[in-house]
Amino acid sequence: MKITGSIVTHNNSRTIYDCISGILKNTKDRDYDFRLYVYDNNSEDDTVSIIVKNFPEVTVICDEDNRGFGYGHNAIMKKVRSDVHMVINPDVVVDMDTIGILAKYISEHDEVGLVTPRVLNRDGSEQYLPKYCPTIRYTGMSKLPGFHYLRRRYTRQNEKFEKPTEIEFCTGCFFAVRTDYIKKMRGFSNRYFMYCEDSDLSRRVMKDNKKIIFYPDAYIYHDWKRDNTNNFVGMKRFIKSLLVYFHKWGWEF
Questions:
Q1: Which residues share a beta bridge with 182?
Q2: With CB atoms 3.0 to 4.6 Å apart as the test, which of 9, 67, 115, 211 could cross-link to 71 if both were Cys?
Q3: Which pLDDT value is given to residue 237?
Q4: pLDDT (tens digit, 9 = 90+) per residue, 154-187?
Q5: pLDDT tens per residue, range 112-171
Q6: What is the DSSP letter of 68?
Q7: Which residues of 162-179 are buried (b: 16+ CB within 10 A; e: fewer)?
Q8: Which has the closest alpha carbon to 91: 194, 223, 195, 220?
Q9: Would you state the pLDDT for residue 86?
Q10: Which DSSP state fits 187?
Q11: CA distance 117 to 132
């Protein structure tokens, strides 16, 4: 089996070494061929030099502008020739053969469009990402005092997933997809610079009558930080993406 992976970077010097080293270590000497690509969105730090210096086997594509998360992944997905493709965040750490496990699963299940693993914080606690589709109530009201129970419901924190389970949302931080299928779907929508592109893709996959599967026996660590929404520019991008999403899929309460 041929597997490819894409990482889109922008000023990720703090996390990129651990991310790539874990991926390469856990895909080495397996019964599949793996190749990793990085699309750099005009980083102003040492991200690119860290990759080039330490990982010569990784293909790096440098843009002179920052065109967004989805744009970078789409640019790579158009180029690759593989059986299965992995979308990977630059703040992810892998310490098991998660890539091989997910690739094998999706290659054996034609009815599945996307498959994503369990996602953990660096301390091993759970990140509750098998969420429902975004709604106004879940994305807005759940942040208000007295309505945090909506957040727990939205992220399905009280549910136990002990086997591969069909879900509504596939996180963009890490998932597997058949390469020919993601090419058919034309990857992420370029209407989103950042945020909600994974929600949009999830909706399109379900509309295409394919399943999204949460695979709990494989896991990754995700150094998740909402730094981008703690400033005006990041919050503006987040709200803009939500408006694009709701305008397309409906203003469900």
A1: none
A2: 67
A3: 84
A4: 999 999 999 999 999 999 999 999 999 999 999 9
A5: 999 999 999 999 999 999 999 999 999 888 888 889 999 999 999 999 999 999 999 999
A6: -
A7: eebbebbbbbbbbbbbbb
A8: 223
A9: 98
A10: S
A11: 16
Handedness of CA 34, 41, 139, 211 (dihedral sign): negative
pLDDT in tens, 185-241: 999 999 999 899 999 999 999 999 999 999 999 999 999 765 555 676 778 888 999
Q: Three-state secondary structure along 16-49?
A: HHHHHHHHHHHHCCCCCEEEEEEEEECCCCCHHH
**240 residue type, one letter:** K
Q: At what angle do helices 197-207 and 232-249 cross, to 10 degrees?
A: 20
Residue 201: Cβ-neighbour burial (10 angstroms; 0-12, 13-18, 19+): buried
Q: Contact at 8 Å (CB) between 39 and 61?
A: yes
